[in-house]
Amino acid sequence: MISILIVDDQTIIRHGLKSLLEIQSDLKVIGDAGNGQEALKEIAFLQQDNQQLDVVLLDMRMPIMDGVATTKQISQRFPELKVLILTTFDDDEYVSQAMNYGAKGYLLKDSPPEDLAMAIRAVSRGNTHLGPGLFEKVLQRSPETTTSMSVMPPELAQLSPREREVLNLIATGANNREIAAKLYISSKTVKNHITSILSKLNLRDRTQAAIWVNQIQSKI
To answer: Residue 29 pLDDT > 90, yes or no?
Structure first.
């Protein structure tokens, strides 16, 4: 069972997320908070009460303490916890800052419920999960760096945009069928992309590809 803390300044969002997540048999929401300060207090209380907490589902834009500052505090005070950022804002700077401070994933709030569940499972295992279109954003060396192909590792820059999307989904643990459904392409096309990715990156299999991606992201 994966235990989750939901942090969002809107009560209706917190309740809605809890209802969506607890449909999944392996997910359980054990607490919620309205801002970062409340979240840190709740985490400390849960630990004192010997309750297991695995993933903090964290809104980006909140009063008092936002998602970036909260992520930094969690990584410093509770490094064993996994943070998944959830927001309506597709913001380059916030993506980069949150990942730099230790967030394991980033997903937009309009993502389908099944994507959210998959992301929570991925980060709980220690993997990195990035929503579609967000992969390149976290490859910036710092929040001040402009987004361009020149800041990407040279191996990654040689991949096509579609191949980078496939590679990102491989890193989340998605299989070929899931990748095909996510990107609206055929399973055969997915196989072709994977073959090309492995060849360009000189990797043996998809497991090596997933490890390679997480090593790259750990250096951000």
So the answer is: yes
